[in-house]
Write a structure and sequence with these properties.
Blueprint (H helix, E strand, L loop, with lengths): L1 H16 L5 H15 L11 H10 L3 H19 L2 H13 L3 H18 L2 H18 L4 H15 L4 H11 L3 H26 L18 H7 L11 H9 L4 H16 L5 H33 L2 H14 L4 H10 L15 H11 L5 H18 L4 H10 L3 H27 L2
């Protein structure tokens, strides 16, 4: 039975890779088939497809979905009010013709955006102005796109939505997720800065058309929609509340939304802007929310008693034991999180993590470290992810070129995360 379930997972990967089915649909279909193979009844109050997988599973990641919506709302406000573009323009004006300074400044904005909202919206917030600015001062287009992606990935350990997802998916307290992610952050920061400092040394052609670096009169800045200086800290508000004061994730994100609204909107226009931006946020948040519904179903399916008893012996036999083998084997398997592979943490990888935890193969904290480490590669170097596709196309290069440019560095970051995981949770 366990091998039949693994075969279903393999077919699901093929369906996603060949784009026969969208990822969410493939995951939902796998959840139903796995539940039936695990002996679940179609209907019933306990261990059934209808109740356990479809009803309970679809809402399993509800807290994550709310966090996604609020993060998308804040991201939409940062775009509408010019907060993100103002941050980038200030950095470009400060950096002048110094390409490393400009790249590091855009990277810093991307970190902030990645800590608030993920995927393509974060890339757009930092990249719409930032990518042309970097190309203008001589950064190669592929590196300009990669720099934005590296910034978003550096923001992931601070991403409150990511904390909530990992907590819900692995059934681990937020405090433990926060602790590991903050420990991982210096490794991600070091690897990302290494990418920028090394790759920006290879200069590209300068393009004066890409961006104007000279200062503009105040009237022009107003027409471009510059946000007031005190509004520029809006993306930091949720992070400060969650990290410094341990405020729960949803209230922290909501506080960021309220602060952005109050500091950029006239009192008479508050309701109008809040409602308009919220409606836009639903459009942005819809794809990840649908994906999280399907992931919840898959997690519920692989946690069924029949699935756990069937898969645990197989997974235990295949999983490396000991700290050294853990690092070596999972470091070698890093490419399997690319191209919607079996270790894609926002796809089938969530189901694999569920099996590892429910079967007791590794401690839940070790599975957390594994997922977080692979997430760094997925968020930057996967040429099928929306943020990579957008950044590459906006920079005028193919996504595969961005993958080739960034993968050596994200692979190194993942190895650092695996070593950290083994040292903290497997010794």
């Amino acid at each position: 039975m366990g091998y039949a379930i693994l075969a279903v997972m393999a077919v699901g990967v093929v369906l996603m890779l060949t784009r026969v089915l969208p990822t969410a649909f493939a995951l939902g279909l796998m959840a139903v088939v796995i539940a039936l193979l695990a002996g679940a009844t179609v209907l019933g109050d306990k261990n059934s497809v209808g109740t356990t997988v479809l009803q309970t599973g679809s809402t399993l990641l509800a807290a994550t979905m709310i966090a996604v919506l609020l993060g998308s709302w804040l991201g939409t406000l940062m775009e509408d009010t010019g907060i993100a573009s103002t941050l980038v323009r200030k950095i470009v004006e400060f950096g002048g013709e110094r390409q490393v300074v400009v790249a590091l400044g855009v990277y810093a904005v991307a970190v902030l955006c990645g800590s608030i909202t993920g995927s393509a919206p974060a890339a757009m917030l930092a990249g719409v102005v930032g990518i042309p600015a970097m190309i203008a001062v001589g950064v190669r287009p592929v590196v300009a796109g990669g720099t934005v992606l590296m910034g978003i990935a550096t923001g992931l350990p601070l991403d409150l939505i990511g904390w909530q997802f990992l907590s819900d998916a692995i059934k681990i307290p937020i405090d433990q997720v926060r602790s590991f992610q903050l420990t991982l952050f210096p490794i991600v920061l070091a690897g990302s800065l290494l990418y920028i400092l090394v790759e920006t040394r290879r200069r590209g052609a300068r393009h004066a058309w890409a961006v104007r670096l000279d200062a503009k009169p105040a009237s022009t800045r107003v027409r471009r929609g510059d946000a007031p200086w005190y509004a520029l800290v809006s993306p930091a508000v949720p992070i400060v509340l969650a990290l410094g004061f341990h405020v729960p994730i949803v209230p922290s994100l909501l506080a960021g939304v309220v602060y952005a609204l109050l500091t950029t909107t006239r009192p008479g226009k508050l309701g109008e802007r809040a409602l308009r931006s919220l409606y836009r946020a639903f459009d942005v948040a819809a794809p990840p929310i649908v994906l999280f519904v399907a992931i919840g179903m898959l997690l519920s399916a692989v946690r069924l008693p029949g699935a756990v008893s069937a898969l645990t012996p197989i997974v235990s036999a295949l999983s490396p034991s000991g700290t050294v083998l853990f690092v070596l084997v999972f470091a070698a398997l890093v490419p399997l999180c690319l191209y919607r592979g079996p270790f894609n943490v926002y796809g089938l990888g969530a189901g694999v993590a569920g099996v590892l935890v429910s079967g007791g193969v590794y401690p839940s904290t070790a599975v957390l470290g594994l997922m977080a480490s692979y997430g760094q590669v997925l968020g930057v170097s996967d040429p099928t992810s929306t943020q990579t596709v957008w950044s590459a196309q906006y920079a005028g290069v193919r996504p595969e070129k961005v993958m080739a440019s960034t993968l050596p560095y994200t692979w190194l970051i993942a190895i650092g995360g695996l070593v950290l995981t083994a040292a903290l949770h497997l010794t």
